[in-house]
Write a structure and sequence with these properties.
231 residues, binds SN-glycerol-3-phosphate
């Protein structure tokens, strides 16, 4: 499963890009507004940090203006994925943009019927929002599993399921088990995935026992070369 990071915060993106684990970035108008930065230069900077798809969302609601905004966003970088809402106008814009070769991420998907429409519109990605469904007592992961199951029946569907609105490591595991092609993770969820008390306890015990040997792997003659961090 590919990992995208769900943030527009350039420092968070740089930090995680440095781990080599990021396959892309998703932003949305709320995440962009939170940065306080101008949208277009921010997206350009994000595209320069991560090679994979970078989702940048249109803010128009009519398909003609969505297409015009999509063209402007696509001109920023080759790895732009134009994000459009799952509305009739959004899917009309999606079809036009994908037919022109632009990646499109269809967002705000909450039902399998909507996901079928996104595939029909040629979406590169469809973003079912698991967390927001859970928030209202529905089963967000069940939606992701159902979409994967339906898409897998039709080899002609090239749309990738991008599990979004991810709230916990459990969501990530369940999205992976459901066969989602991508999950977009808030930085806090990535951090939480690393954490387990037995890992901390086990490492402390290893290091305590190692200290008793009085040995060191690197000796005075060895140096630690500063490694070049990705941009
Ligand atoms: O960015 C798309 C989606 O992941 C946002 O979901 O529920 O965390 O706002 P949410």
């Amino acid at each position: 499963m590919k990992f995208f990071i769900d943030t527009a915060d350039i420092q968070e993106i740089r930090d995680w890009a440095g781990t080599g684990m990021l396959d892309g970035v998703t932003t949305n108008p709320s995440l962009v507004a939170k940065t306080g930065r101008d949208f277009l230069p921010l997206i350009e900077e994000i595209c320069s940090v991560v090679d994979g798809p970078v989702s940048a969302e249109v803010t128009a609601t009519d398909w003609e203006t969505m297409v015009a905004e999509g063209h402007k966003l696509a001109r920023i970088a080759m790895n732009i994925a134009v994000k459009v809402p799952l509305t009739p106008d959004g899917l009309r814009a999606c079809k036009i943009l994908t037919d022109e070769g632009t990646m499109v991420n269809v967002t705000l998907c909450f039902s399998p019927a909507q996901a079928i429409l996104a595939a029909k519109a040629g979406a590169t990605f469809v973003s079912p929002f698991a967390g927001r469904l859970d928030d209202i007592g529905h089963d967000g992961i069940a939606l992701i599993a159902q979409i994967v199951e339906i898409y897998d029946l039709y080899p002609g569907i090239m749309t990738e399921v991008l599990a979004a609105s991810i709230r916990s490591p459990k969501h990530v595991v369940e999205a992976a088990a459901a066969g989602s092609h991508v999950a977009t993770l808030p930085p806090t969820v990535i951090e939480a995935m690393f954490k387990h008390p037995l890992t901390d306890k086990g490492l402390a015990a290893f290091l305590a026992d190692w200290a008793k040997t009085g040995q060191s792997i690197l000796t005075d003659g060895d140096t630690v070369q500063p490694l070049k961090r990705p941009a």
